[in-house]
Amino acid sequence: MTDNHHKNLATFIHLSTFSRFIIPFGNFIGPIILWSVNKDKSEFVDKHGKQAINFQISILLYAIIIGTISVPFFIFKLFDGLDVIDFHGFHNFHINVGEPSPLLYIGGGLGALAVIAFIIELALIVKASLMARDGKMYNYPLTINFLK
């Protein structure tokens, strides 16, 4: 049976990911510190700590992948029309406001995807912390288990 202290520790491990709004990389630092100090006290705290850290690493990995995929679209659009041999491309550089660029649609789609993913991430963190408070295990969806 898990006591209230261990439930509270597991809950605070999940909620410590919100420290990223105050401290850079707080979503990694907070859970890692709380987990590493308390992982030997309870298997319940150990499992929740690993889940929280794995989820944050997975989110970072997914963001890097999406960012890496989107960068070529911006680079190709920026350098479209530049002549490599005769480098006078910036003299007639202009933006056509009347005709939307495909970059606008791609960037807007990726931006909307990022906002939706951020809201889902916040909801999953809150759900995991509520499950930890109730003494239940929670496995984040689409999480890669780096720490086993």
Automatic annotation (TrEMBL):
Its main location: membrane. It is a multi-pass membrane protein. Keywords: Membrane, Transmembrane, Transmembrane helix. The chain crosses the membrane at residues 12-38, 59-79, 103-126. Pfam families: MamF_MmsF. It is found in: Membrane. This is DUF4870 domain-containing protein.
